[in-house]
Amino acid sequence: xxxxxxxxxxxxxxxxxxxxxxxxxxxxxxxxxxxxxxxxxxxxxxxxxxxxxxxxxxxxxxxxxxxxxxxxxxxxxxxxxxxxxxxxxxxxxxxxxxxxxxxxxxxxxxxxxxxxxxxxxxxxxxxxxxxxxxxxxxxxxxxxxxxxxxxxxxxxxxxxxxxxxxxxxxxxxxxxxxxxx
Length: 181
What we know:
Elements: H1 2-20, E1 57-63, E2 68-72, E3 75-79, E4 88-95, E5 102-106, E6 111-121, E7 134-139, E8 145-148, E9 151-154, E10 159-166, E11 169-174
Antiparallel strand pairs: 1-4, 2-3, 3-6, 4-5, 5-11, 6-10, 7-8, 7-11, 9-10
């Protein structure tokens, strides 16, 4: 019940943030612009961090009640002991083809008995002129942020870790306020 309330508050906050966002901060004149690397992609939805494309990469593993880790490129999914009741085939796909760092986790909608953690890198992203902290956001097919997951940003390593309760599509996003755990 408490988790559902947090989701509702986070969703309402995200909607308010999107509604109040009129423009992005100007890019630093000394920082290289990533717009040329987006291959003519349309403007990103508010809050998303533009990134240079990474090579497509995917990995599938069967993980059971004992837990496990899947690493794909600079990103890591950690499933703790007891999060799954039975062995489950899990696929982690990493791409930045749409101009953001994006991780797709399947089977979509898979629920856990304990939260899992997803660590995503933003070392290939243009953070000049953009303030952190950064968070992991759950997005729809059009990359609109549906809500932010509880996240911890490590600006030194340019990695953010979030707690997930289900599988879907997640991206690195900018936040004025990060729900930490």
